């Protein structure tokens, strides 16, 4: 192979404890995960509401397949858009109190697609929170917009940047819940700044939807934002809603524009109607089964209360709790030791997080129970406690 950097970069990742590989699972969703015949309690999945194995979703999927087949077989502008896709878009627009909504096959594609579509020239300024997801960074920095990043959640730095910007169109880009820390962004503060500076606001709520808000509408509803045509919401289906895909909710004009100009939307096969049907079933459960959100909150409190005081965690207010391990080596060691004790969770290392901020990413779902949580906390105290003592 002629790309000589491949060998050297892989070798570098290996020596730095940053090499990534996949694990072929026998079963990967739900409370229990099976790998090479062994069962583990799964603290790695984003199935926050515990819906991935729910009968309502499965039967909706099967009904969808029987009615529409396995694929939508073309893009939405050709023959891929059905009444079910339309019903899902209307349900989401209603739920998020947005004028209109548009479906995408993945959240990555929604983020990068929308930001590259809106970032058409240098008179547009993008202002991204430093911890924005890779798909937002790619979309922004691969577009023609002038993209800058502000310190995580630092509204006064953002405000200064906006004051000093001569850009004609401004878009603030941030998340509702940050995927590696589980902290909730000050979305309401961002909205105030956006309104003050006549900027637009794009909120990726991949990890907030389902978990926050009285019916799981996410961070924007929880913080009771003043809405307007400046606001663009993005939600994903592959996490709390336990299906696949994403939606952009915003003004009628924006959605119409994306249908006509967003290359990710136009030149990609629409999500299968069966997936849209299962997502409708999922949203209905999410809207009514409040106990799932209450359980996540109670289990998260229990987990935090059981960890030793010497163990540092992220400032989480969601399903995601980061347990800092210090070095990458410690993160990998703890992941392995916890696996030996029957827990499956993921070591998160640079470049996903800053150097020195490696961590175990614990995701707590409505399917876990008190015993799972207490036992995990005890094992982390033991395994990570030893690492920290030997440092
Ligand atoms: C904050 C955030 N945005 C977007 C995405 C991408 O969503 P999807 O998995 O649907 O592509 C993710 C997934 O990891 C995410 O964490």
TrEMBL record:
Domain Aminotransferase class I/classII large: 39-378
The protein's required cofactors: pyridoxal 5'-phosphate
Family designation: Belongs to the class-II pyridoxal-phosphate-dependent aminotransferase family. BioF subfamily.
Keyword Secreted: no
Domain of life the protein comes from: Bacteria
Subunit text: Homodimer.
Recorded metabolic or biological pathway in which this protein acts: Cofactor biosynthesis; biotin biosynthesis
Keywords per UniProt: Acyltransferase, Biotin biosynthesis, Pyridoxal phosphate, Transferase
The protein's Enzyme Commission number: 2.3.1.47
Molecular function GO labels: 8-amino-7-oxononanoate synthase activity
Pfam families: Aminotran_1_2
SUPFAM superfamilies recorded: PLP-dependent transferases
Protein name: 8-amino-7-oxononanoate synthase
Gene3D superfamilies: Aspartate Aminotransferase, domain 1, Type I PLP-dependent aspartate aminotransferase-like (Major domain)
PROSITE patterns, sorted: AA_TRANSFER_CLASS_2
Family matches, as InterPro entries: Aminotrans_II_pyridoxalP_BS (IPR001917), Aminotransferase_I/II_large (IPR004839), AON_synthase_class-II (IPR050087), PyrdxlP-dep_Trfase (IPR015424), PyrdxlP-dep_Trfase_major (IPR015421), PyrdxlP-dep_Trfase_small (IPR015422)
Presence of the UniProt keyword Transferase in the record: yes
UniProt-listed PANTHER family: 8-AMINO-7-OXONONANOATE SYNTHASE (PTHR13693:SF100), CLASS II AMINOTRANSFERASE/8-AMINO-7-OXONONANOATE SYNTHASE (PTHR13693)
Catalytic activity reported: 6-carboxyhexanoyl-[ACP] + L-alanine + H(+) = (8S)-8-amino-7-oxononanoate + holo-[ACP] + CO2
